[in-house]
């Protein structure tokens, strides 16, 4: 890795391949029922971001790694269920379509808060927005619905993509291409001392 080259990086949990496949099935169903156009995230790159760094250097990776290890090593695996659609900022003004998480959300929130504080002390600016665990399914192309939004929202809670056990965090490099983002895992931080 070249120290002078900026790396667009983030810390994230990856859902299992089975959950990613099911999210792809949900996307295919939504393409027929969603009352607006969406630019879909490829199922295989959908992830739960705990910390987005933006552009960092290879030296920054060496600085942040021990901080992340300090909080992931004692953490137990997280059992999460992928369920219920939502929108940021709201259903009336949708810009991002996401699917939520249930299960070990309490420990997930504690882990994210500890990481945020620990990384802030090392010079990685803290996030000002509250952390809302979700998996981004797509981004709305036009905020003007072309169908019955209320009818769609009434069934939004019915969607589920199954469950998975998260056993660690990955530090990813994100390279933007015309075909979408390509994510490369740079480091792995297992939970509970797992290898």
Account of the 3D structure:
The chain has 195 residues and is α+β, with helices and mostly antiparallel strands. It has a single domain (7-193), classed as Alpha-Beta Complex (Cyclic Phosphodiesterase, Chain: A). It has helices at 17-33, 58-72, 105-121, 149-154, and strands at 7-13, 38-40, 48-56, 78-89, 94-103, 134-140, 160-166, 168-177, 180-190. Strands 2-6-5-4-7 form a five-stranded antiparallel β-sheet. Strand 8 (168-177) and strand 9 (180-190) form a beta hairpin. The longest helix is centred in the first third of the chain and has 17 residues, at 17-33. The model has no long low-confidence stretch (mean pLDDT 88).
Measure the end-to-end span: 24 Å
Strand order of the largest sheet: 2-6-5-4-7
Please tell me what the overall shape is. Answer: globular
Proportion of residues in helical segments:
25-40%
- By DSSP, the count of extended strands is 9
CATH homologous superfamily grouping: Cyclic phosphodiesterase
CATH class equals Alpha Beta
Q: Kindly provide the radius of gyration, computed on alpha-carbon positions and rounded to a whole number of angstroms.
A: 17 Å
Strand percentage: 35-45%
What structural category do the secondary elements indicate?
Answer: alpha+beta
**Name of the CATH architecture:** Alpha-Beta Complex
Number of domains: 1
Largest sheet: 5 strands, antiparallel
The parts where pLDDT drops under 50 for at least 5 residues are: none
Q: Indicate the mean pLDDT.
A: 88
DSSP helical segment count: 4
CATH fold-level assignment = Cyclic Phosphodiesterase, Chain: A
**H and E order:** EHEEHEEHEHEEE
